[in-house]
Amino acid sequence: MLAVLLLPGALRAFLPALIGRSALAMGGLALLLAVHDSTGSYTQAGFATAAFGIANVIAAPWRARAVDRFGQRIALTTMASGQASGFTALALITEAEGVADIWFLILSAVVGLTAPPLGAAMRMIWASLTTAGDQRTKAFSIDAVCEELLFVGGPVIITAVIVASSPGIGLWVTAAAVSLGTVAMTSSASSRALRGTGGGVARGDRPLRQPGFARVLIVLLGVGGVLGVAEIAAPAVAAQHDAAAASGWLLAAFAGGSTLGGFLYGQLNFKAGIGKRLFALCVSMALAAVLVSQLDTLGLFAAGLALVGLFLAPSLITGYLIADTIVPETSRTEASTWINTSVNLGASLASAAAGIVIDNSGAWLALLLVGAIALALASAVPFTRLRKIEPPAVHAPDHCEHSEVFSAT
């Protein structure tokens, strides 16, 4: 799997992209701690974090559409400049006195609105460097594994920075990461080659207008739902066992399972079609959630969360591969972003509902219900559509060579 990193131009784009993407992994916590430090209010900090998250999700498809239209260098650097400016402005006002609370909300929304879709953009670069089939699966897998590690390590790093300095410095570091990472990534030859369409994309090429794509998003809502409930259930179960400190370990087990799953997925050569893979992964994740709902001890619950996580990254990778196959090349950044949006939406809705269920009946019922819902949603997989358009299996060579972009027809 690591062989894809040796493809010409891969590391030159991938390493800076990881630096830029770390801003999203660090930004939410940095924002929360900085606003709380300035206002002394967790309520205000929570509102600011919510403004950041909601603005990020709402604007995601339009940001990706801009990348498809104007190309990576123009669109991504413009967005990164906007987000870095937002983080910088927040750092300045958190250190000032007498600032109206509304400014924290406004600037938090700006930071969310302008977040550059570096993950989707990097997957476009991977698609331009690899052949469709096993080689591209390996590339998307290593990308997903590294992204999982970013979201494990990012909060730890930014917390260390803030403890050693101040919350304002944490925002400055986040601004530097998104700015420098994006500029370095988009200055690479493989990123510069993706110049965009130069004009509006035909309505018929939009991802949501592609037969079967909306059904894939419905399936991934279930994946996001399991993710959202697991993140709420872990601290709830830890508290139930009077072991609040174990919350982090439970979430680490979940993230570790996802990382392992993504790594293993990239190592395997699959004979099953991409639709069958998505169905099998989503069903397995749903059944794992049902299984975990019946586990009582913390040790077994941690192992169960790792099992659930094992299917998370592979499900996302499969979603990205479907987007790469089912959507015309002119809209693939947007399509990849819709995959993330669907999972994030499912996680957000499930998190809100899980809190109510857990308060009234316990974490076991929340996991059981979301497992059943995810199982039902998995039936939406468009098997016939994917079977018709999926290219024949292409096995990547052992040596690395530059290849043409695969275009779905």
Mind explaining what this structure looks like?
The chain has helices at about 10-40, 40-70, 70-95, 100-115, 120-130, 135-165, 165-185, 190, 215-240, 245-265, 275-290, 300-310, 310-325, 330-360, 365-375, 385-390. It has 16 helices and no strands. The chain is an all-alpha fold. It is globular, with a radius of gyration of 21 Å.
Keywords:
409 residues; mainly alpha; 16 helices; disordered C terminus
Low-confidence stretches: 393-409
Radius of gyration based on Cα positions: 21 Å
Terminal Cα span: 27 Å
> How many distinct helices?
16
Large-scale geometry: globular
The major beta sheet can be summarized as: none
- Mean pLDDT metric: 88
Order of helices and strands: HHHHHHHHHHHHHHHH
Q: What's the number of extended β-strand segments?
A: 0
SSE inventory with pairings:
Blueprint: H1 10-39, H2 42-70, H3 72-94, H4 101-113, H5 118-129, H6 134-164, H7 167-186, H8 189-192, H9 213-240, H10 247-267, H11 274-292, H12 298-309, H13 312-326, H14 332-361, H15 363-377, H16 383-389
Helix pairs in contact: 1-2, 1-3, 1-5, 1-6, 1-7, 2-3, 2-4, 2-14, 3-4, 3-7, 5-6, 5-14, 6-7, 6-10, 6-13, 9-10, 9-11, 9-12, 9-13, 9-14, 9-15, 10-12, 10-13, 11-12, 11-13, 11-15, 13-14, 14-15
